[in-house]
């Protein structure tokens, strides 16, 4: 998990200054016509950090994990990320992911094979969840224009 932790820290270090440059006005502009804004995408990534934080820790404490699925559009709407300040969102996303890099580095090796079922999806291992988290993060940072 050291490699994944290091990669996550590198991603955050690269993306943070780019995200800050977008500013409040730039964060409201849809990334693609008819698509989500940078604020909505970053709100989604904050949700992903929060959900995965719970998944990682709970799976490390159990022999298996059953976790509810994620309602992406519903969560973004309820959280009203469009009304949140861009700087606050960037601060939260950056800090949360730096903390997740810390957590990931310390996951017990003996728990990486714990089966995890998210919603109705087929079970995957904790190790897969951790690695998939960074893939998902890079995908959406690419949409925002902040991926290396």
Largest beta-sheet details: 3 strands, mixed
Question: What is the count of structural domains?
Answer: 1
Topology order in helix (H) and strand (E) letters? HHEHHEEH
Looking at CATH, the homologous superfamily is dinb family like domain
Stretches where pLDDT falls below 50 for ≥5 residues?
Answer: none
Shape-level CATH architecture = Up-down Bundle
Tell me what the structure shows:
With 148 residues, this protein is mainly α. It has one domain (2-144): Four Helix Bundle (Hemerythrin (Met), subunit A). Helix content is 66%, strand content 6%. The protein has helices at residues 2-28, 38-60, 72-79, 86-105, 126-144, and strands at residues 65-67, 115-118, 124-125. A hairpin with a 5-residue loop joins strand 2 and strand 3 (124-125). Helix 1 packs parallel to helix 5 (126-144) and helix 2 packs across helix 3 (72-79). The longest helix has 27 residues, at 2-28.
Spell out the blueprint of helices and strands.
Blueprint: H1 2-28, H2 38-60, E1 65-67, H3 72-79, H4 86-105, E2 115-118, E3 124-125, H5 126-144
Parallel strand pairs: 1-2
Antiparallel strand pairs: 2-3
Keywords:
Four Helix Bundle (Hemerythrin (Met), subunit A); three-stranded mixed sheet; 148 residues
């Amino acid at each position: 998990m050291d490699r994944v932790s290091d990669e996550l820290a590198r991603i955050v270090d690269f993306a943070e200054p780019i995200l800050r440059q977008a500013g409040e006005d730039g964060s409201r502009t849809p990334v693609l016509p008819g698509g989500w804004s940078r604020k909505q995408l970053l709100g989604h990534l904050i949700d992903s950090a929060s959900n995965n934080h719970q998944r990682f820790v709970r799976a490390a404490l159990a022999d298996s994990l059953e976790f509810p699925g994620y309602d992406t559009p519903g969560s973004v709407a309820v959280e009203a990320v469009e009304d949140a300040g861009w700087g606050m969102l960037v601060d939260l996303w950056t800090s949360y992911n730096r903390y997740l890099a810390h957590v990931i580095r310390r996951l017990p090796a003996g728990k990486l094979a714990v089966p995890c079922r998210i919603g109705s999806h087929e079970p995957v291992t904790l190790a897969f969840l951790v690695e998939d988290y960074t893939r998902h993060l890079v995908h959406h940072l690419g949409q925002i224009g902040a991926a290396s």
